[in-house]
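Appendix B, Record 12. Input sequence as logged:
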Amino acid sequence: MFSRFRVFEFRLYKDYESLKEGSVADCLTDLTAGIPERYHLKQLVCYKNPDTRTMVFDVIAEALSHGSFVNLTIKPDRPSQLGVSTPKGLIIGRGYAVLEAKNVTSTSGANHQLLKIFIAWSDLSWSGAWSNA
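Logged structural output:
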């Protein structure tokens, strides 16, 4: 069920694409009446620690296994960064849907945790490791 404020915004602007503020979590809450959970990786004390990354990956994989919607966003440090593409092809401030979380073992025997992400409104693609490029 949509909140009254979102319905008002939709009627005022005629579509959600025209809105400049808000979050994917707010939108999904309006659409599904679900309860959002937010994790800010930079606020985790040791987010660069491999054990912490594994914990975050496990949380994402578990959520997906239960049919949850999972969204990732790169929060800009300043407003001028919104919509700017990173060197790897991700767009700052845009919401990415997480479609899959997989543990993969390479031919060398190394384990890798991969996320399959999707953004509907961009022609840019990830150009880092494991990309299709």
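The chain has two domains: 1-36, 39-133.
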